[in-house]
């Protein structure tokens, strides 16, 4: 029986969700075929399906399309965005923070030594890291200072929250985002700006 997952706010979010779900055999690689399908209730969904390259099991993810898709927009600094202002229904805040970490880890410490192609790759990675941090912050209620415990719905997300609960505080997330955006944009007089 096909399980229909909640709506993704963008194709980038849906694809990331699929990438975050390893096969039962542990294999993370998965190059699915993608198609839009009609659901029994008349709504539309995106179906990701294919074979695990390690064990050969058939894999499938059916992710509901939003009833009113939001227009594709960048984040507040004009970069990449995974979705609208509401928190994700597919990916929890711990998973989003792990994604931010993975993208940030792709950026070398010495930005001045990068050639133009490396600079572009670093810009893409930092833009994705900032967008993932923005997704974590969407789980913090307006009157709260941190992501509430009930927002963590995945095993991976709960493990990260238990190990490093302070990383989910609004002030720490904002400081980290500010660091990444400074690397992306620098100040107007910085000749070594990452995005030039």
Short description:
With 196 residues, this protein is an alpha+beta fold.
Descriptive report:
With 196 residues, the chain is of the alpha+beta class. The protein folds into two domains: 4-64, no CATH class; 93-185, no CATH class. The protein is built from five helices and four strands. It has helices spanning 11-19, 93-104, 116-137, 155-163, 170-185, and strands at residues 4-5, 33-38, 44-51, 58-64. A four-stranded mixed β-sheet has the order 1-4-3-2, with no helix packed on it. Helix 2 runs antiparallel to helix 3 (116-137) and helix 3 (116-137) runs antiparallel to helix 5. The termini are far apart. Residues 187-193 have low confidence and may be disordered.
Extended strand count = 4
User: What is the oligomeric state here?
Assistant: single chain
Q: List the strand order in the largest sheet.
A: 1-4-3-2
Main sheet overview: 4 strands, mixed
Distance linking N and C termini: 50 Å
Shape: globular
Helix content: 25-40%
Compute the number of structural domains. Answer: 2
Q: Calculate Rg over CA atoms.
A: 18 Å
**How large is the count of helical segments?**
5
User: Which secondary-structure class do the elements indicate?
Assistant: alpha+beta
Mean pLDDT: 89
Q: Topology as H/E string? A: EHEEEHHHH
């Amino acid at each position: 029986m096909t399980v229909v997952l909640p709506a993704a706010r963008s194709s980038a979010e849906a694809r990331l969700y699929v990438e975050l779900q390893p096969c039962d055999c542990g294999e993370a690689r998965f190059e699915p075929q993608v198609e839009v399908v009609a659901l029994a209730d008349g709504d539309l969904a995106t179906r990701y399906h294919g074979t695990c390259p390690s064990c050969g099991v058939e894999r499938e993810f059916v992710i509901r399309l939003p009833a009113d898709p939001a227009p594709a927009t960048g984040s507040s600094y004009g970069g990449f965005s995974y979705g609208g202002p509401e928190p994700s229904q597919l990916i929890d805040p711990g998973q989003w923070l792990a994604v931010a970490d993975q993208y940030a880890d792709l950026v070398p410490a010495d930005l001045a030594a990068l050639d133009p192609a490396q600079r572009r790759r670093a810009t893409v990675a930092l833009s994705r890291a900032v967008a993932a941090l923005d997704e974590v912050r969407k789980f913090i209620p307006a009157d709260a200072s941190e992501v509430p415990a009930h927002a963590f719905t995945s095993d991976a997300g709960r493990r990260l929250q238990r190990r490093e609960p302070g990383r989910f505080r609004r002030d720490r997330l904002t400081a980290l985002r500010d660091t990444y955006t400074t690397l992306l944009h620098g100040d107007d007089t910085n000749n070594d700006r990452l995005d030039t």
